[in-house]
Specification:
Shape: rod-shaped
Structural class: alpha+beta
Number of strands: 4
Length: 169
């Protein structure tokens, strides 16, 4: 019984071809895993700085400016009779947008004082002694101070008025 050399050769090649296919499959799987891991790592590292830049941008937003206050001299006015004559003595502080607005207030102080004296002297004691009356008076003062001083001029940027002293007698 002689062995056919050609018949033995295909039997040896078959296991070699199967192992080559397994090797190629393993290499393909390893490349896919590495490619997927590399892609995930790239996505993670490329998107992380973008989030940090976004946080940096938030931090670089303009910080709120510190408030600027302008104190006015004491106002003493006679109130409208209700039923007796009484007077009001009040100290005010204005809150303005910036130092430039504070300078404008100081520049126009005689006009502002005149407007406020007219407003305050038009009130009755019953109108200004309650909390609601003081809030309404505060709104009226802001409205008076915001009015432009001449035609075409921008209104003042006054955001509030604070009573630092308030006496009705």
């Amino acid at each position: 019984m002689a062995k056919d050399p050609k018949a033995a050769a295909p039997a040896e090649e078959a296991p070699a071809a199967g192992s080559k296919k397994k090797l190629i499959m393993i290499i393909v799987i390893v490349l896919l895993v590495l490619g997927g891991g590399g892609g995930a790592a790239a996505w993670f590292f490329l998107h992380k700085p973008a989030k940090e830049e976004h946080k940096v941008e938030e931090k670089h937003e303009e910080a709120p400016k510190p408030p600027v206050f302008v104190s006015l001299e004491t106002f003493t006015v006679n109130l409208q009779p209700d039923p007796d004559s009484q007077f009001l003595q009040v100290d005010l502080t204005l809150k303005v947008a910036d130092p430039e607005q504070a300078e404008i207030v100081k520049l126009h102080m005689p006009e502002i004082r005149n407007r406020l004296l007219m407003l305050l002297s038009s009130k009755k004691p019953s109108e200004v002694t309650s909390i609601e009356g003081k809030k309404a008076l505060s709104d009226e003062i802001v409205a008076q101070v915001k009015l432009p001083f001449s035609a075409g001029e921008k209104p003042l940027e006054v955001s509030g008025v604070f009573f630092t002293s308030f006496v009705v007698q």
